[in-house]
Amino acid sequence: MTSSPIDLSAYTPMSAMAGFNAYVGTMLRHPGKAAGEAARFAFVPGPQHLNGGGALHGGFLMTLADNVLGITANEAAGDRFASTVTLNTDFLAGGTADGPVLGTAEVTRKTRSLIFVAGELVQGGRLLMTASGIWKIIGA
Amino acid sequence: MSGNWLDELPETFNGMRVQRPAVTDVAMPAGYDGATGLVDPFEAFVFQSFKRSNADGTTSYALPLDARHDNGLGVVHGGLLMTFADSVLGLAAWGACAPGAWCVTVSQSSTFLRAARVGDLLEVTPIVTRATRSMIFTRGDFTVAGEPIFQAASVWKVTGKSVSSS
Fold first, then answer.
1. 41-80 of A, contacting B, C-beta below 8 A
2. Are A84 and B10 inside 8 Å of each other by CB?
3. pLDDT tens per residue, range A26-65
4. Contact yes or no for B40 and A63 at CB 8 A
5. 8 A C-beta contact, residue A91 and residue A64
6. Is A26 on the interface with B (CB under 8 A)?
7. Does the structure show a pLDDT above 50 at B111?
8. CA B94 to mean position of chain CA atoms
9. Does the structure's ipTM exceed the value 0.90?
10. CB contact under 8 A, B41 and A84
11. By C-alpha distance, which of B161, B155, B162, B138 is closest to B61?
12. The domain spanning residue A47 has which CATH number?
């Protein structure tokens, strides 16, 4: 079962991912982030990312959202580290293991110690998840 | 996908090797009386958990945090905590569904209070806050050694066969 193939050739694997992220799978990143544009990520899921009903597991999608929004937050934090304080995730549609999940995120507000981020996950043109969260800049 | 889903997974998928769990021998912690049934491939891939039936009718769950769960910075990844929450709050939500019905996550709010570490025992007793004909509301306070480290609240849509009464 194949939908129209999505060209991921512009995306490159994020080699810096370690631990749980590396275990769950390889996140890809689109390098062409222009000023004011959302950062773009991709992940190619497999059968180990499914739930018992054959759809992508909610925990897997929330893990992706935490990474997509969290990387965006940490880049806004500069040389400081920012950790997730809240993450709200809405499940708009079920995903499958039949094609890449694309993720985007943008910083909606940054204060001295907090970064507010919003993003979404899309598969085959279908919106799977909208997410928003707050990251705390550690030591700020 | 019932039974041992590991036997049903293909060796390769879309040209990529399908991963197997890196840890499969997690010991049951004291105070728990059985393994939580492995319902979903992703859950079995990322954790093993255990359950205990309480006298008040609730069920408690425990997840021994192992080497898979480190985020690379010495603390447990939020994605693992949210996955465990979706799994055990889902068990509570499904338990509140009428026979033949099931439910799917519509929304989950996750709050991270403090870091958990590999070797910690994560525990929770999920609560069904409200159940209506078409929606179920659940929440859980997740603790390590009695200290709250993570909170989740989720909303479930009842689907499948309609619920006859509630």
1. 44, 46-52, 54, 57-60, 62-64, 66-67, 70
2. no
3. 899 998 766 667 889 999 999 999 998 889 999 999 999 9
4. no
5. no
6. no
7. yes
8. 12
9. yes
10. no
11. B138
12. 3.10.129.10
